[in-house]
């Protein structure tokens, strides 16, 4: 084979020399390219005047083009393509010329160059072959160029062979997952399923789930994927849904106020029997506050301690989600003695404050010790001061602050201190 190729190359050089006015230049350039002395060949080529370069046979120019692309001199590659079209006609440019440049760009992960060459190919109406796609899609996967790969898919899908089609969709599935394009990932996942005629590895579904959790209006798709994953877990080897995915889904449920999504995540969590971390518990409580009732939230909270900012966040979600009905429900529950733990009372106080029912908040605060046996701590004082300031009851806030000092809590939140005249004097 080597002998045949050498013979063919020698024949091509011989023909090129016969058809050129300066055969010595052709032979020298061909020898330099063959000996892989690329820099010398390119320097010799660039030193030629315009008339000599115009007379060079296309075989020699292609040798220089291949050498240039192999060395990664991309600007010169584009100039050579234009030179071939200008000196030898548009029809002289073949798909092989473009693909050799694209393969070189792909080896160097130069997406911009590959995109420009693909654009030149499209503008000249050159139909791509499998070699074109085998260079493009791995490049998109390595560089996470999802939109570029998607545009190639949409434009040339009808030209895909049976070996290229699954490779293209698999690469785009990876890039859409990596760039959190959840809706695209779901489309590619379904297409690969149809091609294969059976479900894929469970990891693909979990990764698609992670990408979907970052998108809006994907509640139904996420719920169906979660149910599918749950069914696969009961069939055989248990696939691990890591906690990060579940936390992201719970946050998505809270953001979209989607009860079905919360229920699906809860069912999956129960099947996995994962130990709940603090981040998972916070995401779960936020989802309950955004999709459930006050009773459900306070029951789930139990006696778990929560910070002041998080309690305010939960109360705000609860008030928004129930349009203020949560405050009434909590007031009724407090009368019946359903909620008595400090955390539950803390959420109740913040719910009244967020619902701008300061009188109820003051009433609850005054009865904490006597009725519920809970001594108000610094967060209770600060929450009530915050509520007084929101309602412009600065005198009331100062009274709360005085009582706070009496109980031995000296420093106060910066946002409260900035709103209260005289606090530096008291401190």
Q: Give the helix proportion (percent range).
A: over 70%
Radius of gyration: 35 Å
Q: Stretches where pLDDT falls below 50 for ≥5 residues?
A: 12-19, 422-427
Mean pLDDT: 79
Structural class: mainly alpha
Instruction: Estimate the global geometry from the Cα principal axes.
Output: elongated
SSE order? HHHHHHHHHHHHHHHHHHHHHHHHHHH
Give the number of DSSP strands: 0
Largest sheet: none
How much beta, percentage-wise? under 5%
How many helices? The count is 27
N→C terminal distance: 93 Å
In words, what does this structure look like?
The chain has helices at residues 2-18, 23-34, 38-47, 50-55, 58-71, 74-88, 95-107, 111-123, 130-143, 146-156, 164-178, 182-196, 202-212, 219-235, 243-256, 259-272, 278-291, 294-301, 308-322, 325-336, 342-354, 358-366, 368-372, 378-390, 394-406, 414-419, 423-426. Helix content is 76%, strand content 0%. The chain is elongated and about 110 Å long.
Question: What distinguishing features does this structure have?
Answer:
single chain; 427 residues; mainly alpha
Show the helix and strand layout.
Elements lengths: L1 H17 L4 H12 L3 H10 L2 H6 L2 H14 L2 H15 L6 H13 L3 H13 L6 H14 L2 H11 L7 H15 L3 H15 L5 H11 L6 H17 L7 H14 L2 H14 L5 H14 L2 H8 L6 H15 L2 H12 L5 H13 L3 H9 L1 H5 L5 H13 L3 H13 L7 H6 L3 H4 L1
Task: Tell me briefly what this model is.
The chain has 427 residues and is mainly alpha-helical. Helix content is 76%, strand content 0%.
